[in-house]
Amino acid sequence: MKIGLIGYGKGGRFFHAPLLASLIGASFAGVVTRSPERRQALSKDYPKVPAFDSLADMVAAGVDAVVISTPLASRRALILEAIEQGVPVVSDKPFAPDATQAQQLVDAADRRNVLLSVYQNRRWDSDFLTVRKLIDQGVLGDVRRFESRIERYSPSSVGKESGGGILRDLGSHLVDQAMQLFGPVKRVYAELEFATPAQNVDHGFFLSLIHASGMTSHLWGNCLQNAQGPRFRVNGSQGCYTVDGLDGQEAAALAGLSPGSEGERWGVEEHRRWGWFEHGEHRERVPSERGDWPAFYRQLQDAVVNKGRNPVDARDAVASAKVLDAARISALEGRVVVL
Hints:
- It is built from 11 helices and 15 strands.
- By secondary structure, it is an alpha/beta fold.
- It has 2 domains: about 1-120 and about 295-310, Rossmann fold (3-Layer(aba) Sandwich), CATH 3.40.50.720; about 120-290 and about 320-339, 2-Layer Sandwich (Dihydrodipicolinate Reductase, domain 2), CATH 3.30.360.10.
- The chain has a 9-stranded mixed beta sheet.
- Helix 4 packs parallel to helix 5.
- The protein starts with a strand and ends with a strand.
């Protein structure tokens, strides 16, 4: 199976290319980028992987699927071009600026009967997999409140429009995770933070989601947070699970490591990074599940080659986009939005 990549910025270079190059039974077929600097980086990172000027050139050379990791503003046209070429396509997140445009992309893929997937890799974070296991096994009892944060101190990210703002960028992950655990959302309340009144994109958010199941999820994202809260805090009738810091796969990828170079070490969290289970005075470490971002691409292989299940159905991204749209309305109008 030949997989091509469109875009070789931070996302393409560090979050896709190492996984594609490590994927057993597949080949990293090429990268579309016209930037001389990024072509030079590609040549250094993967000397045998060709660069192409356009998606059409890459398709003509022969690919079985393409991954689009470009800024949000250019993503829609590239997704539609891949669909028209009849090539299975993976879109980085955020999938689209709003739910209407997201649905249009899904409709286009349906008309052409083309597989369309969204790279929600944080479904395979070690901490999220651990939370899911604890909930599924009933360790926490009746879960009453779910708290989830991705907070950083990164001033260079303030006002950066390539991802559409922190709500669209990090929020797409956090909303997707909450909906994976607790299902559709009924009501949304949101607060957004902007560096200046004239800022086009937010740098921080708080969301309160009421799920149709009755569960409450509180979600935070920020790139100007000096003192980060716990990544997850999940309260149940039989105890609480908390874990700090981010899954280590991101740091590993940015350090130049890959599933290929690390083998069985990839995604394994050190003991000191494990979370805690607490109930009254009882407190114990909870071994973290192994993080597995490569699982997305293994499932994509199966979907393309064997007509298996899409690793992330683009309709899930439409559902998340509706929540994010409601969040912007809520923050703008200062009210709870009912879906």
